[in-house]
Design brief:
336 residues; 2 domains; 12 strands; 16% strand; six-stranded parallel beta sheet; Rossmann fold; alpha/beta
């Protein structure tokens, strides 16, 4: 393996889970060129990574939506003369593109519709395993041992300095800084807004915490809803950061509290104390991995994971009380 392409997944948390693979590949093949093919929205997960030589943007919903644009992309890949591709993404389209680009060794999980485009088929694990282990298994089955599975996102130094300076003004007013992400990619994974509001007010009043809200512009309605129910004034960075900037910001908090979501994985990858509220999803299958991750969930009668999108009760999230979250947060902060 001399010229290696890794086809990434699309979501922030999932992309972060795959980052240990690049170090493992470089350690196994130190003289190889290692590139990653990823959509624009997760490219910052890989930027600055010393084990990645090149980021190739493939955005099927935007720049590569048309048939002609895909053909042009195939031509670009062919010119790079990759000899091996690891297809972490399950997409048939991406596998076909790599086939048409003349990549000789195409490695991915066994799927009926990929039979003619993937020539190194890996059998899926028989038991349910953590999503990160599922991704990394593709590499390990090809003899590439992943010794360190701790995800890592690299933050540019200038950005680190910028946010350290900016947040130092906020820090001077508070005993602790707490990052808050009340959003998630589907409604049932979200702790109630009124609970987040009450938790933030309690952290502010009892522990003199500076509350920092994060999120992209699509999260604004959720965050504004929480802020509207608060008695105290937080700091709102929603919609003001890309992934690199968000990482630089989160590096400065003492604790990050989040629903099961991409930002929780980002905070964990930075080694930040991360408290994650779990409901319908399984922490055993998708919890962020890092040295300082705490999971908060309640045992209920429902089977977890549960993907019943029409659930009206959302008991799994509602059963987590404000006091539950506050006591966990207090315990973590007292050890900072």
């Amino acid at each position: 393996m001399q010229r290696i392409l890794v086809v990434s997944v699309n979501w922030l948390g999932d992309a972060i889970m795959t980052t240990p693979a690049f170090r493992a590949v470089k350690e196994k093949f130190p003289l190889s060129l290692v590139s990653v093919m990823a959509p624009e929205r997760v490219k910052d997960v890989f930027s600055g990574n010393p084990y990645i030589d090149e980021i190739i943007i493939f955005d099927e919903k935007k720049n590569h939506k048309s048939f002609l644009s895909k053909l042009h992309f195939v031509k670009q890949l062919r010119e790079r003369k990759f000899d091996t591709v690891f297809l972490i993404h399950r997409s048939f389209t991406r596998a076909l593109i790599c086939f048409l680009a003349g990549i000789k060794t195409r490695i991915g999980y066994r799927r009926l519709k990929n039979t003619f485009v993937v020539n190194k088929m890996i059998d899926s694990p028989k038991n349910n395993i953590h999503k990160q282990d599922y991704y990394l298994n593709i590499f390990e089955k090809m003899g590439i041992a992943v010794y360190d599975k701790t995800p890592k996102v690299y933050v540019p130094q200038k950005m680190q300095e910028k946010y350290k300076t900016e947040l130092s003004k906020i820090r001077s007013k508070h005993a602790y800084l707490v990052g808050i992400n009340p959003s998630a990619n589907w409604l049932l994974k979200r702790w109630p807004q009124k609970n987040f509001a009450a938790l933030c007010d309690k952290l502010t009043k009892e522990l003199n915490c500076g509350i920092i809200f994060i999120g992209d512009k699509n999260d604004s309605p959720v965050i504004n809803g929480v802020i509207a129910e608060m008695k105290n004034t937080p700091y709102n960075f929603c919609g003001k950061t890309n992934i690199n900037e968000l990482a630089a910001l989160v590096e400065n908090v003492d604790l990050f509290i989040s629903n099961d979501s991409g930002p929780a994985h980002l905070a964990a990858s930075l080694g930040i104390n991360t408290l994650v509220l779990f409901g319908p999803t399984s922490s055993q299958l998708s919890a962020p991995r890092g040295r300082a991750v705490t999971i908060l969930k309640k045992d209920i009668q429902c089977e977890i994971p549960c993907y019943s999108t029409d659930c009206r009760d959302n008991t799994c999230m509602k059963n987590i009380t404000v006091e539950d979250a506050y006591l966990k947060a207090k315990e973590i902060l007292k050890n900072v």
